[in-house]
Design brief:
Structural class: alpha+beta
Radius of gyration: 25 Å
Number of helices: 15
Number of strands: 39
Helix content: 10-25%
Strand content: 35-45%
Shape: globular
Largest sheet: 11 strands, antiparallel
Distance between the termini: 41 Å
Oligomer: single chain
Length: 662
Amino acid sequence: MKYPFFIICLLTLATSVCGQKHYQLTSPEGKLNVSVSVTDRLSFSVTHEGQVILKPSSISMELDNGTIWGTGAQFRKAKTTTVNREIATHFYKKNKITDHYNELTLDFKDFSVVFRAYNEGMAYRFISTGHKDIVVKNEEAAFRFDKDYQAYIPYVKGKFNTIEEQYFNSFENEYTYTALSKMDENKLAFLPLVLSLERGKKVCLAESDLESYPGMFLANRDGSAALKASFAPCPVATAQGGHNQLQQLVTSRQPYIAKAKAKSRFPWRIVIVSTQDKALADNDMVYKLAAPARITDLSWIKPGKVAWEWWNHWGLSNVDFEAGVNQQTYKAYIDFASKNGIEYVILDEGWAVNLKADLFQVVPEINLKQLVAYAKSKNVDIILWAGYYAFDRDMERVCKQYSEMGIKGFKIDFMDRDDQQMVDFHYRAAATAAKYKLLVDFHGTYKPTGINRTYPNVINFEAVHGLEQMKWTGTELDQVTYDVTMPFIRMVAGPVDYTQGAMRNATKRTHRGINDEPMSQGTRCRQLAEYVVFESPLNMLCDSPTNYEQEQECTDFISAIPTVWDETIALDGEIGKYISIARQKAGIWYVGAMTNWNARSLELDLSFLQEGNYTAEIYRDGANASRIASDYKKENITIPSDRKLTVAMAQGGGFAMKIYKK
């Protein structure tokens, strides 16, 4: 049932008892309800189709002067509005999204709290309305559930003695599926985080528009059915160190989490509710809650694919030179990229002198000007890897000099923090790079929170347990199950630089971690499907030109797949079991599907195709792919008139398809 705006207004009129005020905010379709209580403490609760999603959960912001926004605050007024518009996206999984919500704004002395109810979830944020800068000592964000639900917990990875130590991490993780009450009280988890509720519903907790403020972690330290926020305090001092002296390690912290300017808008806290798992794989809330683009000219931003050398360890063979960090090797990668219509080649770690944290000291084996000129002659562009501190210490000069040289972007790595200082770095890096028309691919970073909308030159993010893990782990790691879990959780936040494309493929039994000749877990077709399933505007080809040239049929398919899309449809899926997604660009549809370690048949519903006859180029697991993971078969078929297609996938398998209209 749809509620007209005048009814929404009535629903949000306060009921007042002894000075307490209560407001109801309903989603446009009327299924989701947010109840807000303004008493001595500010709290909210959420129901969906009458089912309790969140019990009353307190929210507040504590300032260093003792004021607490949300406790005993001086209430002034409430107002409501409805918005229904389309947002034109940039370099995204669809070219436009619907932004339809009902909004309630509660004004207090010096601050406001804004609540929004969408059909797919709700969000709230604090806004400073006073005229003075403030210092935020802490923020209370609690998510209280009515039962001890199971959750997919992305714990901070590593061994730590204290909570403080966990604020320094790479934001790469597997998921622990456990009851809320069984969570490790000594561990932090980062966002997004998904819970399994009754009636098949899922709740995803996320955040958006994180700017000049620390990212939100979650913890459960009392064994209850609640999650509470934790934030890294502001650094007082940092010291150079970490990976190859390219990081800044926090040595002391302030007793507060953020300094904020007057009129600051704080991050959106998001509660997504889905009745089907597949809806999580195609959710837009983080993107549409982010600040709009601050770049007016986007014509120079070019998404695409990258021939990448680090994963395959400069793995060329049948050449007459020693492959490594040198001119001949990179010219070979450029030649490969040019031959296969690949837009970029990246020079990963090694082109700058090690342990110097100085991007102006280039190793003698590399002549960047010559490489840029050679690449340009082949219609290929160059991206450079940069350690965080090396980039930050002289950001303006680095961007200016390399932009003038013809470099098209930087892959910036090893930040490994999301305190206010580090979040500020991400925005400074994005803005400075945009000034000089440079792309940015953030690695060693926290999850996306919408900066890719605000600065569309931020073209991708790591913050994922990607294929690099295959280089140093064996059968103890279950990457295959992760691959069909992550799209429903991490990818809710935004794109992933997972770095797929392995041509050496292994089964659960045969996989080994080998640095010089790495392999993937799962089948060849799984690697092809990941180019469709994973959202990735700047997409790596992780294997070597030698291996791709020996597998030209797969290389041709990969190189033709777009990296940004006009339309995305999540066809089917269940977290941790399987997923199938369809994406369209310029009238051509691609479909990708993956399963866990269970062989599986899926019926794909292709009813999204318009009238007419269609043919498809399909890549399916071979008859022996459960034993020989590289076994696959390519076929050309006619799409059935009933638009139903059954596909079979091997253990750890996948399926990929390109659909043309006849």
